[in-house]
TrEMBL record:
It comes from Halobacillus seohaensis. Has three domains with a flexible linker between the domains II and III and assumes an 'L' shape. Domain III is highly mobile and contacts RuvB. The RuvA-RuvB-RuvC complex processes Holliday junction (HJ) DNA during genetic recombination and DNA repair, while the RuvA-RuvB complex plays an important role in the rescue of blocked DNA replication forks via replication fork reversal (RFR). RuvA specifically binds to HJ cruciform DNA, conferring on it an open structure. The RuvB hexamer acts as an ATP-dependent pump, pulling dsDNA into and through the RuvAB complex. HJ branch migration allows RuvC to scan DNA until it finds its consensus sequence, where it cleaves and resolves the cruciform DNA. This is Holliday junction branch migration complex subunit RuvA. One of its GO terms (molecular function) is DNA helicase activity. Residues 154-205 are annotated as: Domain III. Belongs to the RuvA family. Residues 72-91, 107-126 form the Helix-hairpin-helix DNA-binding motif class domain. Homotetramer. Forms an RuvA(8)-RuvB(12)-Holliday junction (HJ) complex. HJ DNA is sandwiched between 2 RuvA tetramers; dsDNA enters through RuvA and exits via RuvB. An RuvB hexamer assembles on each DNA strand where it exits the tetramer. Each RuvB hexamer is contacted by two RuvA subunits (via domain III) on 2 adjacent RuvB subunits; this complex drives branch migration. In the full resolvosome a probable DNA-RuvA(4)-RuvB(12)-RuvC(2) complex forms which resolves the HJ. Its main location: cytoplasm. The keyword DNA damage applies. NCBIfam families: ruvA. The gene is ruvA. Keywords: Cytoplasm, DNA damage, DNA recombination, DNA repair, DNA-binding, Hydrolase. InterPro entries: DNA_helicase_Holl-junc_RuvA_I (IPR013849), Hlx-hairpin-Hlx_DNA-bd_motif (IPR003583), NA-bd_OB-fold (IPR012340), RuvA (IPR000085), RuvA_2-like (IPR010994), RuvA_C (IPR011114), RuvA_C_sf (IPR036267).
């Protein structure tokens, strides 16, 4: 799994950007590619989601890690594909979206392209309570994390990325749910450690 790409931003078009690193150009699909306009021909780092299917491999890019993680969560919702998830991220901030989910605001959610009442309800059912780390603090309008300290937050982010990497390797949601409680007990230092431990648990199950 490609977690991020760091290199020179060489081109921008309506759907994607291209980053060259060590002589290789990576085409990265983005919600709003021209948001990178000020960084053209400069070295940048883009958080990426490596989308793997039998007939295609695509890289989706994000300026912020929370955007990438929300994208991954949206892909797990029935009725939401990569284009739909990207369209949502291109038209709303993460805290605004999370607030709509927590408030069960179906009217707000159905404003996104391709999202009807059924899909909006499915998003609420699948995501409510799982994205509270991105809720805004009403006092200072800064994104804060409730219920867990920073160390726990970082562990959860690493665990989420590892589970997405294992899913990209072909493991089912059912298999990953079986190992998640045990994997969550670990305090690994990086995503790769979580992936390695996850593979060990999957081989035992």
């Amino acid at each position: 799994m490609i977690a991020y790409v760091k290199g020179e931003l060489t081109t921008i078009d309506e759907e994607a950007i291209a980053i060259e690193t060590q002589g290789i150009g990576y085409e990265i699909l983005c919600a709003s590619p021209f948001n990178f306009q000020d960084e053209l021909h400069k070295e940048i780092k883009v958080h990426t989601y490596h989308y793997i299917r039998e007939d295609q491999q695509l890289l989706f890019g994000f300026k912020k890690k929370e955007d990438k993680l929300l994208f991954a969560k949206l892909l797990n919702v029935s009725g939401i594909g990569p284009k739909g998830a990207l369209a949502i991220l291109g038209s709303v901030s993460v805290p605004e979206f999370v607030s709509a989910i927590e408030q069960e605001d179906e009217k707000y959610l159905t404003q996104f392209p391709g999202v009807g009442k059924k899909t909006a309800r499915q998003m609420i059912l699948d995501l409510k309570g799982k994205l509270v780390l991105w809720l805004p603090d009403e006092d200072n309008e800064q994104t804060i994390f409730y219920e867990e300290d920073l160390t726990a937050k970082e562990r959860r982010i690493r665990l989420d990325e590892a589970l997405e990497a294992l899913k990209a390797l072909g493991y089912s949601d059912k298999e990953l749910k079986m190992i998640q409680p045990e994997l969550a007990k670990a305090q690994n230092s990086n995503v790769d450690d979580y992936v390695r431990q996850g593979l060990q648990l999957l081989m035992k199950s």
